[in-house]
Amino acid sequence: MKTNLKCIALILLLSSIEIAFSQTQFKENQIFTIRGLVREEVSQDPIKDARIEVNGNYLGNTDYDGGFKIKAKIGDQLIVTHNDFEIVYHTIINDDKIIIEVQYAPSPIEVSRKKAQTFNQNIDSAKIYLKNDVEKSLNYVTEALKNTSSRKENRLAYETLADVYAFWKQYDLAIINYKISLQNVDSNDVSLKLGEVYRLNKNTEESIAVLNTLKNSRLTNWQDVILYENLGDSYLQAKNYSASITAYEKGLKIAQNHLITPKITDLNSKIAQAYTSKGSINKAKEYFGNSLKLANKENKKRALEEAVIVADFQNTNREYDEEIELRKDAVDVIDDLELDSLIDNTSALTPQKQNYKIGNAFFLQKDYDSAIPYLEKSIIQADEREDLVVKKDAARKLSDVHRDAGDFDKARETYDFYTNVVDELYIKKEQELSRVDRFNKKILESAIRISSLESERVVSQSKYEVTEERSKRQELIIYSLGGGLALLLITGYFMYSYIKQQRFTNNLLALKSLRSQMNPHFIFNALNSVNSFIANNDERTANKYLTDFSFLMRSVLENSEEDFIPLQKEIELIELYTKLEHFRFKDKFDYNINIDSNIDIQDFKIPPMLLQPYIENAVWHGLRYKQNKGQLNISIVQKNEDELQVVITDDGIGRERSLQMKTEHQKKHKSTGMSNIKKRVSILNTMYKDKVTIDINNYLEVEDAGTKVVVTLKKD
């Protein structure tokens, strides 16, 4: 029995072995459809167009996704070939999917093509984000610079970088990068941009020099027009009105000959503005008439822009009825345009600005009833759009309208509202300065990163070229070191500019604080004078004094937001202030204000409230204590072409006797006005390179020595 079972088991085992052997032999001879994939080992990117062979027979190429499909049997040899990697051999052992990973080494042509594609994509992206996201735009330019392979690409990358800086008003950086762009490949377009950005950075002479060099270049008709337009702008900025008009007219002639319609409108408008600055009003009207007609034939927005420019011109020439009609039409057009999108607050075309200017024009005509609704509407619109600047101006003007209309309660109420807006605006300005600080840090970081990248690129490029051409080794090393040094200097300059701008921002805040301290000090002293009249029951005199004081106060507040004001405004202020002091102390002194007729007072600017404290000191601490009647003289004389002197003299008791007469309490009290002036002058001279100098001495060598103050003021 056991022997039979063993026989049966042996027979079954031999049968199964025979079946397995026959099945294996069948599979080896069977042809399968096998799928496969060829991909790069590290990146896992598919490789297309790889050649597929089986046992030396060509069966096709891999598709876009690196895939292939073949018919083969077990034991066949698969061969995969490509120009960018070594031959791969693979023996087929089953019908599973075959995955072949290779070390991909693309050809120089493929590398170059991909780099060019990546470069162009980054440049396009940088341009897309240029106006909306400076950080993204700069990052894309940085990536583009990593993929440059020619001087032409370098030129385009640095031009784009400069365009970004120019749009965000970083004109120093824009100038540097336009220059680097031109060093790679000369370009008329880039030179035109460089000339324009020089002007925007107030480098007028450099702008004119760059633009004049292009006159002998081969320019397109469009470039010719832009050249003469930019030249006109630069000459206008330099106040060379005749040269400006000549340049604009040349550009206009080219635009007319070649039917460049938008520039025909622009240049008519700019010629009109140049004639306005020159004082030729009739010629200005003629060209403004042309520009307004031409703009109306273009599109609504261009017509609106020109209408606002012409309305400003009419305001300057007191043609208020024409101005009002033009601005009313402009408001209707603005409403139509804003059906699509709101106009940004920085634009001159906002409805709140136009309604404010309509109200102001009615105010200047003394039509107070018509002015009020426009100013109120302007305030509402400015509030809705968070435009604190227009809200402040409109509130201030509305207060003036109510005051002049005799509604003093409304005037006081509106003035309180105005002061609240001023406080709100001051807080916002501080926040804006903080944002500007953060923005400048980002710009600086990007600039340093890009300059470092360029330095590395120059060094690596020099190494490569040294191995290629030994004869140029010395030249390239010098170039690399020079370029690296230049980039280090540029980086140092960026850091210096940032620190300088930081100090400038801090100084602006300090000046704002000091100016805000001057106003309460001045108002307190002036109100003491009013109080003295009331105390003496001289109500009529107090009312007259208060009327003049209100005009003075308005001038002081209007000027308090500026670092510098035209000399003419400061003269008007001290004339009114001196008149008020003389009004109170008629029996103590006479005064004389003499201005040299040769001085063009429009050419000079002066810090507001700079002279008033010295006049106040002369009256209150010198002339007031004099036994007999004294004399106060204020003279303004031209020292040379770029300097003038304001000399304030009094024959009062002098500084030493005035100090002796003070009480112990008064001696401990430091003069707010004088201390404030010293700090302001110190900060201004730091910011604007010794623009103001002040010298104080005794006026006479007698008992009543008096005081002589000499303020030297330099032209911008």
TrEMBL record:
> What GO molecular function annotations does the UniProt record carry, in alphabetical order?
kinase activity
Q: Where are the TPR repeats?
A: 225-258
List where the protein spans the membrane. Answer: 476-496
- Which InterPro entries does the record associate with it? Bact_2-comp_sensor_kinase, HATPase_C_sf, Sig_transdc_His_kin_internal, TPR-like_helical_dom_sf, TPR_rpt
Matching PROSITE patterns:
TPR
The secretion signal range is: 1-22
Q: Note the superkingdom of the native organism.
A: Bacteria
Signal transduction histidine kinase internal region domain segment(s): 511-589
Keyword annotations for this protein?
Kinase, Membrane, Signal, TPR repeat, Transferase, Transmembrane, Transmembrane helix
Q: Which Gene3D superfamilies match?
A: Histidine kinase-like ATPase, C-terminal domain, Tetratricopeptide repeat domain
**What's the protein called, per UniProt?**
Histidine kinase
